[in-house]
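Hey all, sorry for the wall of text incoming. These are the three entities for the joint prediction.
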Amino acid sequence: MRTAARFAVGLRLEDVAVARGGRTILADVSLTLAPRETLLVKGRNGAGKTTLLRAIAGLLPVERGRIALTNAGSEAQDRRGHAIYAGHADALKPALTVRENLAFWAKLHRAPIARIEEALAALDLASLADQPAARLSAGQKRRAGLTRLVLSGKPLWLLDEPAAAIDADSLARLTGLVKAHCDKGGAAIIATHDRISLPSARAVIVGPEATA
Amino acid sequence: MSGLVAIVARDVVLALRAGGGAVQAALFFALAVLVFALAVGPDLDTLAELAAPVLWTAALLSTLVSLDRIFQADFEDGSLDVMIETADLLELVVLAKAVAHWLTSALPLIIAAPVLALLLNLPQEGYGPLLLSLAIGTPALSLIGALGAALTLGMRRAGALVSILVGPLYAPTLIFGVGAAKAGLEGAPSYGPSLLLLGAVTLFAAALAPLAGAAAIRFNMR
Amino acid sequence: MVTEYANPEKFSRLARPFIPALGAMSVLLFTAGLYYALFNSPADYQQGETVRIMYVHVPAAWMALFCYAAMAGASAAGFIWKHPLADVAAKATAPIGAVFTALALVTGSLWGKPMWGTWWAWDARLTSVLILFFLYLGYIAIWETVEERARAARLAAIVAIVGAVNLPVVKFSVDWWNSLHQPASVFRAGGPTIHESMRPPLFFMAFAYMTTYGALLLVSMRAELAARRLARLETLATEKISGVRPE
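and here's what came out:
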């Protein structure tokens, strides 16, 4: 198993600005996230929640400022090696079964094979594992996409609107999963416009009205 | 490395499943040859002379129409995000996608080519050179095509643009490919050199296309 | 030295007086070049009067190659050093180069009919120049399609740099392959073989094309920089920048 020291990771953003499509979307963003902490990022649609998460994941370049991991040995460590982004798109191939989809992601993430079953169980997909992904409902697809969090073994989870399309039971399961992840020393940032409530989580608002 | 193998293997599986592209690629190729043959007419001598150029042109066209499969679906469903997040080198992902495209789009053509060559009355001694030139040359079409697909990633009306961009870059492959196939058929001394030049084009594309394609994807994903 | 002119406003100001100067030079050079080419140079002993097409055709072909090299070079500079004027220069060069290439192709065709007996031949030189023309069009098409300027600049730069592999093919095609087209007679190892009396009109015309390119380049770059400034102001007016604060 991974040692808690290596797994524990926090995050610090200093005066970060991010542009997309030639326009500055976010500016002067400063944030800190401690290990074991969950941060809810709230804000209206189009406010820049996805942009913030993708920049943290390393999928978008930062215009100004810096994003650094804390508690990860040295601050200069590659964020991509520690963060996993689960976005609106589930990255599922409809022609493959659920298990085949997971097996593909496991290979990309260099995860052990055993973790596939662990991930299926964690999101209550074991009974659907041999179904083609095309036959899943929208909520089931969402859960299948979220298995990548468990598969990746990464300490920093970046969840973009994970509550979309899933029912109350699955949502409770997901928040439980996030809580367990943070108890192990991980951290999570969840972008949501309203539905998720985590009593233990801190919340921030993203939007034009929140500029410094 | 195992991630790259997984990308190629997954694309091959997807192409072979129902609704996949492998059969479509071969069908489009056959249709293109058929249209040429109908336009040329039934004269067997003319057909025999045109067999190699027609098969090469059809191979080029069917590669062109299948280019959107290389990155577009992975871009839309988020798979490309996962590949970018996990890959050590995006250049190698581009190379893997080009290899997968060759296996799923070009290899079916090479398998179908002898049958179509038969319909075009290609003389017997022409089969070896034709298949060899296709085998050496079509990887260049997939590699340059992957660059074109990367350049037009996520764009509306990408189909016309990718043809305009890739078309001129396909010229050397077509010229040397047809040159080698014809020289081999006629037993001309330029057969060997043409094959070598064709191989050089493929190697050059293998070196350049992943570099340029990865750069293009990075700019297009922002 | 380079970064000193990187400021677009400063560049636009400095470039302005060069435009009429280059324009005037180009008119003078065209007058002299065309006078020599049409009236004050000998007819060729083989080709007769049609040789005069050369004075329009050959410098156009030189410019076709020169402009592509300039475009690819500027693209590489923009790509590597992010110099703000490099992409502007490359973008402005493309249509000018495409017109020179078209001119070389059309005049070549007009010359080919009396000399070779055909308007067009699919030989290495002609084909590679035609490909050059399509590379220009592909480069322009990227700029036309991609709306966001920074992204268009990077993608177009990749296209220009990759397409540059065609340049040596164009230049050496007459040496590498048997071609209807005659080999180089001016820029060749061992000195020019073209007759002395044909050199003045050829060089007057070449410099006329060069100054025309210079003038058009500066006009086009200033227009592009002005358009960018306008777009930036419009963006600033409508931009909604988000920040983050605790709930």
